[in-house]
Structure formats: structure tokens, C-alpha cells
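Table S2 (text version). Query chain:
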Amino acid sequence: MPVSNKHTHPINVRSSQLDMPRRGGRQDDYDDKIRSAQLELERIQQEREELERKKHVLEELTSRKREFLSQQVELTEKLSSAITLIDRELFEMREETDQLEQCRSCFSEHLDKIQKHDPEKWTKDNLHAKLDKATIVTDQAEDEYDQAAAYFEGSRAGGIFGRPSKGGRRRIKAQNGVSEFRTQFVSGLAFNLPIIALGVLALVVYLIR
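Corresponding C-alpha cell output:
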């Protein structure tokens, strides 16, 4: 039985048709590599931006730290100096307060002694003795007043004695301020002048008789 040649013809397949799947696979691989590279670039860019952000934050913190250290040093010096001056001022104020209390007590005693003398009650017989005794009392009071005024001159209490207080425009010099001090002293003791005047008047009347 003769064999038919119907299926014996060779199949001619173009090589280009066989290559097409390969080229498609290579293209996909190439696209995948591009996408991977782009993703990697994006990741690197994000990491770079994150590093830049962290760097900016660190620089800002470093700048704030330097400002704090500078302010810390400045304030430490200011506050330490202020505390030292305040302590010194408080010590001087307490010391001055104690001295003023002693001065007040002394002046109060002198005032009592001065006011006990009443020239109107003096007689011719005791005038000399009474006047001598009264003069001693007033001289002692005046001396201690002068000493206190000189001691507190230039301090806060200087104004009490008619002297410029601490921080005043000028100080009264001892060698050229005697007359001015006397005037202020007399003004400060004006409340005692009537007693002194009465004593002098009584003495004059007694001598004239």
C-alpha cells in the first residue's frame, strides 16, 4: 500500500518566530532591572534626605547647646556676683542696724539727762554747780552726737545726722565742713534749744541782779 507524502513535508518555521519569546523575556528582565535601579535610587534619595534632616536637627541642637552654655556662663557670673554683693549689703545693713540701735539708746539716755535740768528751778546758791553739771551733760551729748555723725557719714544713716547719705552727690570733708556740720547739728537738736536758751537766760538774769 503506497505511503502518502502528505505529512512528510518539512515544517519551515522562521527563526524570528522562535526568537520572539526570548526577546520578550529579555525585555522584561531589563525593565525589572530598571525598576529595581529606580527603587534603589529612591531608597538612597530617601536615606540621603533623612541624613540631611538628622544633620540639620543635630546642627540646631548644637547651636542651642552653645547658646545655653554661653547664657549659663553669663548668668552664673551675674548671679554669683549679685549674691555676693547682696550678702555684703545685708551684712552691712544688719551691722548698721545694730549700731543705730546702740546709738539710739545712747541718745535717749542723753536726752533724758538734758531734759532733767530745769534752769528755772536753779537758785543763786546752786546756780554755779547746776550750770557746771548741766554743761558737762550737754557737752557729752554733743560729743557723742558728733562722733556718731562722723561715723555714719557716707552711709545710709548719714541723712539722720544731716550728712549726705550713701550714694549722695558729695561728702562733707572733715577739714572744710565743720561750720556746715555745726549748722546741721544745731538744726538736728533744735528741739533741745529751748532748754539751753532758758538756761542761758537764767544765768544772764542772775548775773545782772
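Notes on Table S2: Confidence is low (pLDDT under 50) at residues 13-21, 168-179. The radius of gyration is 55 Å.
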